[in-house]
């Protein structure tokens, strides 16, 4: 489908555009994004270009994942990336990361909630999942704020960017 634009009280969520390569590149230098999300390390400018020019538009075009960038209404600063990824029939995964400078203001919860609300309204989805490495308390706080039930811990579920297997939390949110 064509990308949508969503608005919350403080944010605009829109598809990434070519002019966003720099903010994506800068944000993804952050060590938490590099540890807790599956971005390449080191994260090079061409990795940002690939996401902005190819992966994210293709995700929308093929209905595999719906990624939106969140930007502040007051001044336009880039806040972060928020995504729903199709896992199986009727099941999507919510993923997110925020630029370090914009954290701690409730923006990620606001953006992630808006994306989930859009998902319930626009997609054939009955369950949204959330996955995070055990210990990623920030990610879990957002999921719980949105009403996700943390359903379990999978041992040694994913090899992270440190090359070691880590335990992962999984949570779910059912269609309201
Ligand atoms: C996780 C992340 C997206 C949080 O972004 P954020 O914009 O700071 O989150 P918000 O400001 O919307 O916070 C929402 C709630 O989570 C809480 N929270 C945020 N970070 C937290 C942390 N590190 N530890 C504990 N609670 C945290 C906030 O206090 C807030 O709760 P409150 O409203 O009751 O005060 C951000 O830290 C990040 O990008 N981390 C690196 C990438 C990552 O881990 N992504 C998730 C992969 S599963």
Number of helices: 5
Annotation, overall tally of beta strands: 8
CATH topology of the domain at 6-125: Aminopeptidase
Overall SS class: alpha+beta
Pfam families: Acetyltransf_3
GO molecular function: protein N-terminal-serine acetyltransferase activity; protein-N-terminal-alanine acetyltransferase activity
Domain N-acetyltransferase: 11-175
Protein name: N-acetyltransferase
Task: Write out key terms for the chains shown.
binds coenzyme A; 176 residues; 8 strands; Aminopeptidase; globular; single chain; 8-stranded mixed β-sheet; alpha+beta
Q: Describe it for me?
A:
The structure is a single chain. With 176 residues, the chain is an alpha+beta fold. The chain has a domain at 6-125: Aminopeptidase (3-Layer(aba) Sandwich). It has helices spanning 21-27, 31-36, 45-62, 107-122, 137-145, and strands spanning 6-7, 11-14, 65-72, 78-88, 91-98, 127-133, 149-159, 165-174. An eight-stranded mixed β-sheet has the order 1-2-3-4-5-6-8-7, with helices on both faces. Helix 1 packs across helix 3. The longest helix is centred in the N-terminal third of the chain and has 18 residues, at 45-62. The chain is globular and about 40 Å long. The two termini are 24 Å apart. The mean pLDDT is 98. Bound molecules: coenzyme A.
Summarize the structure.
The chain is α+β, with helices and mostly antiparallel strands and 176 residues long. The chain contains five helices and eight strands, in the order ββαααβββαβαββ. Bound molecules: coenzyme A.
